[in-house]
Amino acid sequence: MEEPEENLASLVWGQAEQRAAQGDISFVRRLGSELADRHAAASEQVRAYERQLAHVIRVLALTPGHDSLTQLLRLLEDKPPTGTHPDLRAPFVASLLAEHQQVPDLVATVFDRREWKKLDELRACLYHELLLRGADTDTHGPLRDWTLVRPGWHPLAWLPTHRRDFEAGVKFPNRSLRGSARGASSQLPTTGRMDPPTPRSFEPSALHNVATVDVYETIVAAPQAGGWGACEAWVFLLDEAITPDQVPALLPTLPMACMDGLGPTDRFEIAARPMKDVWHLLFETASMGGMYSSGVHGAFGRLWAWRSMAALSGAPANATAPEVEQLVLQSTWFHFEAAAEWFHNDIGSDYGIAALSPDRRRIAVLAATDTD
Fold it and tell me: What is the pTM of this model?
């Protein structure tokens, strides 16, 4: 059925019902087949345009200088991208700008809301990209003013307006016109090791997982945002307070899928980690993504790292960022790996995190893997 576009539309709206009523069902089927083919071709053309537009935006963002910056902003202001390509979205564009443009130029230009009225989403993301890279949000007037005029409903508005000490020194990808390189790793460190002696106790713990759906989803927020292959979460309330040095022996006995099949002599390695290291691991997981994902970049990577740590530390759902910060600083953090079937045991692609609450009567666990 080779029909011009206008004729095809008239057949759909003018003859499909009549032909079906007359019993000419094969005509209706051929009409549907032609429409499906044209839809597929048009969809591929749309995807091609999106890829090309994403490359043009990338070229403008990666070309240093005021002229390329203003031309990019004019493009985004006049023709806001509406496609689904991830490189058309504000978090990615903001990350590119923070990496390749000068901070004073970004602050003076992008945060001019009188000139660029439609770019609040870009500003919301760029603010946190610059903050994480060390920009002083107090001395740069437009950054300071942004915290007063930004949309209060935006999810990023929950985050602190100043970089915390534990957020300093995070890793970012290095992007070029044709690709990118990432340096994130989830490998267990050699310092702080607390590996329990083998053979370990094979007596399963009587504790039960009490994680609600909301707590579970918040704990796994960082690896899910980063598109990691699989992640799970558990929460256990203890009968009595325990000391941090009791955690390594307890973890392998807990009823968790990530420990299924782990024998008393199978590899189980664990280290006590500073809270800063755990936050960096979760930030890199969310911001740079996994094997088949480029992540959600710096601004939302910051948000989901905070959210995951909030739930791991036992913070209430309505807790403020300062309240979460107090809890995570008072919690005790562990990083572990295990030769259990749930993990794939590829270097740098598996990790487990455990948090012992400040009162030492709650253990929350996050396990993540990024292998097929």
Answer: 0.92
